[in-house]
Structures are given as C-alpha cells and as structure tokens.
Amino acid sequence: MKMAVSVKAFLLAAITACVSAADTTPASELEKSLEFEGATALEVEEIHRRNSLSLLLMIALLICIVLTIWLFKVKSFRVLHETGFSLIYGILVGLIAKYTSKNEPVEVEVCGENAFNSSAPDKLYLKYSNVTYRYSLSERLFTSSSGSTYGDTLLFNPETFFFVLLPPIIFFAGYDLRRKYFFRNIGAILIYAFAGTTISCFVIGLLMYAYTRTGWEVLPIGTDNLVECLLFGALISATDPVTVLAIFHDLHVDVDLFAMVFGESVMNDAVAIVLFRSIGEYSPSQHNVFEVTAVFRSIGIFIGVFVGSFAVGVVVGLLCALFTKLTKIQEYPLMESGLFVLVSYASYLVAESADLTGIVAVLFCGITQAHYTYFNLSKESRARTKEFFELLNFLAENFVFVYMGLALFTFPYHRWNYGFILFSFLAITLGRIVNVIPLSFVANLKRRNKIPAKFQAMMIFAGLRGAIAFALAIRNTGSEVRQLFLTTTLVIVFVTVFVNGGTTQVALQFLKIEVGVHPEQDRDIVELERADGAAHDSDLHQMPSRTGAHAPTGVVRAWTGMDRRFVRPIFTSRGPPLTEIFPHRLHGLARFLTAPTSVDKTDDEQHSAPYYTNEGLADDMVRLTGPAQLSFNDDNDSNLDADLGGGGDREEELMITEASA
What is the C-alpha to C-alpha distance for residues 610 and 388, in angstroms, rounded to an integer? Predict the structure, then answer.
C-alpha cells in the first residue's frame, strides 16, 4: 500500500516500523521514541500554523468582499451580485496558491500486515516502543493525477458545508420567507419544485447518458452506468438564483414573478437533495439490470425521507413555539434568542441522526418558526434572531462562493472533459425548458391570474446553479466520475452566475417585464376608481383586482381557516381564547395551553412586505390621490393573514376615504 504523507513524520514511522526491536537497546528505543514524538509535535504545530493562515486568508477575502459590495451599492452597480465577487476573489487567490505554493509529496512503502489488504484501511496503526500511532486515510490518489499538493490547507472537509455553512443559509430562506406572496402562488411553486425538479433530473440524466453512449470521447463513466448520470442530473437540478433575486428585489419586479422564482429555488433545493439520495439508493440485485422493485424502493425512500424530514422540522418548530408561549423566557431576551438558535439548528441534527435529510428539516423548521414562534418572542429577540440569521446567511453564502472559486484551482483532481462539460450546458437548458413551459401550462389551467410567457422565459433564464449543487458534488469525490461531476458543476456555477446573473437587467428589458412595480399597484388603481363614487365599505379582497385573482381555494383555503381558528391560537398568543375553541370538558387543557403573560404584539411590518412598508404605500397613494385620507388596519392578526396569503376575514386593507371639505 502506498500513501502520500509528510516526509518528516511518516518516513520516520515507516522506517521504525520495519526495524527489528532486537537490534536496539531500551535506551536507544526511548531516545528514538522521544525524537519521533518531537517530530510529531513540530508537525502538529506546523499544521496548526497553516490552518490559521488559511482561515486568516478566508477572513481577509470576506472583508474585501464586504468592502467591494459596499462600494458597488453606493454606486448603484447592479450588474453583479456579491456572490459573483466572491467567486472572482476565490479564483484569484486559488490561482495564486496553485502557482506559488507547490509541494511535491514523497511516496514511501509501508511494510507490515496492512500492505497485503485488498483495500486501503481507514486507519493505519504503527507501533513503536510500546507507543501506538494512528494515521487516518485522507483520500484516494490516482496515478494520472497531478503530484502536487498545492493549497491543501485551503481545502476543507466537505462535511463542513453540510454541518456548518448550509444550515444557516437554508434556515434563513425559510425564516425570511415572504409568506403572503409565497402562499399566494403555492400551487405553481409546488408543481415547479416537485414535478419540475424530477423532470429536470431525468431529462439531464438521460441526455448525459445518451452522450456517454455515443463513444465520441473516452469517459470515466461506464457505457451502461445510467445511475451515475441520473445522480448528476439530480445534483445539477438544484437551482440557486440568488443573483437574479437580488436584482429583482432592487428593481421591484412583479411580486408574483419574484415569489415563484424564490419559492421554486427554496423548495427545489430540498427536492434535489432527497432525489439525489433516492437515486443513490437504487440497488438492483444484478449490476446494470433494470428492476421495477428497485425503482419502487427508491420512490419509497424519496417519499419517506422527504415526509420524515418535513415532520422533524415542523415538530421541532412547534415545540419551540409552545415552549416560548407557555414560559416567561421572554423576560430574558438573550436566553430566549440563544434557545431559538440552538433549537433551530437541532432540527438539522435530529434529521441527520435519524438518517433523514437535515436540509429539508431545517427549511421547514424555519418556515414554522417564522409563522408561530416569531410572534411569541420578545421584541428584542425578534430583531436579534432575524438580524443574526441574516448575518449568518450573508457570511456563509459568500464563504461558499469564495470556496468554489478556490476549488477551481486548489482541488488537485479535476477531470477536464470538455465535451462532457459543453454537452451538460445543452442538457440543463433543455431540462429547464421541459420543466418550466409544460408545467406552467398545467398551472395556468387552475390559475385565474395566468403565468405569462415572458414570466416563463424569465424563470428559464433564472435557473442559476450554486451552493447546493456544489455541496452535493464535492461531498463524494472518491472516484473519477465524481471528480468529473465536481469539475463540471464548478464550470456551470461560474458561467450561470456571471452570464445569467450579469445580464439579468438586459433579459428583463428584452422580455419587456415591468420594473418598479408596486406590490399592490393594481389594487390601488381599483381602489382609486372606487373612491370616486363606489361604496367604500366592501371587502377589498372581493374586488375584481389582481389580489382577487389570487383568492385562495381548495386546500389552501381549508388550511388557512384551520390555522386561524385552531393551530395559531394553540401555538401563539394570538387569536381567540382557547376556552372559546375547546369544548367545555377540555377547558383544563385550554387553560394549560394559555400563555401566562401576553407577549408584546408589535406590528410585523418588516416581516410581511418585501418592498414597501405601509408608510411608503401611504406616501405613494397621497401623491396619487391628492386630497385623500388614508388609514390602515394594523391589527396584528390581519397582518398575519395577509402575510400568509390566506385572504382572511380581516385581511390587511387599504381604506381610502374622501377628505371632507
């Protein structure tokens, strides 16, 4: 067995392992043992120093990114999102690390019983002078790979992404979800996320499989290995349109387009991860033989893992909501915020420990925490938790993109198959088209507010790839085909972020998609027309406005009613008293579930409206109406209904009354 190791530490270990103990005296053994331990201590100190320098470099890069973003925001430069700058900085540093810090490894042959193992052991134990030293297997090396180990200290364990960086990114996506517009388009979002991601996965996978069958190039993928191609289709189907969404937000693009692109990307990540795992679990009894039972087993795994992860996230969120409601922890905002953060992260670990998917669990935990727990928190904890997770999301997201830029040059085992990479762009484009256009047609069958063709074209264009695709690709690079997947994924991420993200404004202009759109613009126009002589006391959500086109139906209406009447009063201090909801014989339970003190119910303006506050809307309407007087129903329950998109009995209304003479 051959292992590439440090010259200083492992040469000594290899030599001493082959020396006969009979040829040495106890005194010399002790001296050599002390010498070996001294060399090991020096090696540990050197590793510690290199790790400190690598972390310092990453911090310096993040500081440069923050300053660059600040400068471009001051100059109102929207061509490139901060993730694009992160990629650029990462590429530059990776390029420098590649050509300035080469260190050729030395291969030594280790004698001993492990040399005859059929496979490399995970642990290698070397015993010398009654002291046993353990070496861990780091990775598999290929003879065709470059012999240099440049930038090794800049490469982190892939598990770091899944346990440290991704949870805050995914949790914030759920916790900061604009629920009003998300649930207003929930049908289309779920169709795109579940059916669309599955279609995209199989279209890409089958196209790449067909490419490997052509024999145009020699690939590390076997000609009959369909599963590997489907795995690539699953991981590359995870979209991350963070650049596009940032430009949408700055330009005030139509809120329905924003909600569909954002909602699909959030749910799509969860589906892609579970799909990737389910395909990986496909194991027919005979190699390269299609089996229906194995297919159904994978489908069962998909359903079980997704439902189980969903349940874990929701249950953890509800337990946290119930605890914050029934206790007086609001009197200690710091403890309250700490508990909130720890419980939220625990949802990820619980799912992973149960062999489920933590990303799905933490996403739905974030949505549940935002819908219930948030309103039980003190005013200080509400602000602190939102700002804390927003900061974590910002730093973690930029860290991931910096690392992607570094990996382009510091990852030593790239597989550059240009035909495979170029064909993958064609595959993901066709997969996106087959995903969006037919499913938009299906969604429009039940939507009163149709998804126009220009929105569909923009959704196809917004299919950028990012953190999730990269994390899935880098988690397993133990084979040549997985190394090819990582290289291809990195190239796709770079191209989509720079090309698609950098030309978003051009695409909006070309497709003639309106910008600067007020989220309630159509409603305002209708209300202004009615202010001239129509009845002012009619329910706003019944008007023939754009909002009326989104009136909830079916499952959404049923859930909204149940949530308002039963679920919300149980898990928050909002809504009618529980003694009015529960039957008389359960009044004891109702009193137990009633909060000991009322929570500060400040209005949740910043949580519900992504573009405009009530004050901003009022200013716009005053400019439009002249001598008109506006007032808002700021009732907390009505704001929550509006945010949920349920069109409740008292949905937040804009009431315009004629000013008296």
Answer: 18
How far apart CA 599 and CA 597 sit, in angstroms, is: 6
The yes-or-no verdict on residue 85 having pLDDT over 80 is yes
Read off the amino acid at residue 661.
A
C-alpha–C-alpha distance, residues 109 and 92, integer Å: 37
Reference 17, options 120, 111, 121; nearest CA is: 111
pLDDT over 60 at 555, yes or no: yes
DSSP strand E in 508-555: where? none
Distance (Å, whole) CA 236 – CA 197: 10
The answer to whether 640 and 631 have CB atoms below 8 angstroms apart is no
Pick the closest to residue 575 from 584, 563, 586, 587 (CA basis). Answer: 563
With tokens 């490399």, the residue in question is 120
Amino acid at 167: P
The partner residues of 136 in beta bridges, in order of sequence, read: 123
Question: Beta partners for 109?
Answer: 2
Q: What is the pLDDT of residues 473-520, one digit of tens each?
A: 988 887 888 889 999 999 999 999 989 888 888 898 899 888 777 665
Q: How confident is the model at residue 80 (pLDDT cuts 50, 70, 90)?
A: confident
Q: What is the pTM of this model?
A: 0.74
SS (H, E, C) 408-472: HHHCCCCCCCHHHHHHHHHHHHHHHHHHHHHHHHHHHCCCCCCCCHHHHHHHHHCCCECHHHHHH
Cβ count within 10 A of residue 488: 26
Query: Dihedral sign, CA of 483, 489, 495, 501?
Result: negative
